[in-house]
Amino acid sequence: MASLKELKGRINSVKSTQKITKAKQMVAAAKLRKAQAAAEAARPYAERQADVMASLAGKVAGQDNAPLLLRGSGNDQRHLLVVVNTDKGLCGGLNSNIVRAAVKKARELIAAGKTVEFYLVGRKGRAPIRRNFPDSIGHHFDTSEVRNPGFEEAEKVAAELVDMFEAGKFDIAHLVYPVFQSALVQEPTVQQIIPVPAPQATADAGGAVVEYEPGEEEILEELLPRYLKTQLFGALLEVSASEQGASMTAMDNATRNAGELIEKLTIQYNRSRQAAITTELIEIIAGAEAL
């Protein structure tokens, strides 16, 4: 049985931990508002851009002169999984869920006879993916020295992916990232980004015919790389908001668990202290009666 001194030390240690988790919870809550606003503000632009691209892509789809990012390499054997994780921990099961979705997709592709390679963004996904696929880690993009990864980092990743695609290093690329829904829910998502899938255009009620100047091919040559950058930028914003939401939830749970542990240790401490006092009183009374 632990001594009173040991119990007192454990109580003080848990109280110190509780102060840290409470502080991190408050920091994450403050950062979450800004990160959530940024992620939600980027979604309408990405959706509208997808609608415009759908209209353009529908006119040139299947043509030999369509841009390479749209028509693809003509094969589907080599797949690249671009997995976006966080650089920091203490955010619950967020990174584990992202890695689980990536590993599931990779195994499905391998089972179908495809070859799989990983392009990792963020540090936290590297170790678990390397354990599952030690020979499939091709590239990684380091964001650990960037305070808030944004459009500049998305441009660099997009440029590297386009160079790899044009060099024939893969046929299809999939983006794996979390979609922020709330502080409690961050849904891992897998979507194809190269070749850029032509989104389903929504039929407008008026049936208006839109003509583009210059031609659709020239516009798509500019729009497709921008669309790819937008998707990567959105993924970085989503993972940032998801990180803060998951961190806030995890630190709140840790703070409450620490409080419960303090209560249990305090009860144990009081009982041990009462037992020690009772034992001393019995010894004193027994000694007095002996006299």
Automatic annotation (TrEMBL):
InterPro entries: ATP_synth_F1_ATPase_gsu, ATP_synth_F1_gsu, ATP_synth_F1_gsu_CS. GO terms for cellular component: plasma membrane; proton-transporting ATP synthase complex. GO terms for biological process: proton motive force-driven plasma membrane ATP synthesis. Transmembrane segments: none annotated. It holds the Pfam family ATP-synt. Its main location: membrane. Keywords: ATP synthesis, Cell membrane, CF(1), Hydrogen ion transport, Ion transport, Membrane, Transport. It is found in: Cell membrane; Membrane. PROSITE patterns: ATPASE_GAMMA. GO terms for molecular function: ATP binding; proton-transporting ATP synthase activity, rotational mechanism. CDD domains: F1-ATPase_gamma. Belongs to the ATPase gamma chain family. HAMAP family: ATP_synth_gamma_bact (MF_00815). Produces ATP from ADP in the presence of a proton gradient across the membrane. The gamma chain is believed to be important in regulating ATPase activity and the flow of protons through the CF(0) complex. This is ATP synthase gamma chain. It comes from Croceibacterium atlanticum. The lineage of its organism: Bacteria, Pseudomonadati, Pseudomonadota, Alphaproteobacteria, Sphingomonadales. The gene is atpG.
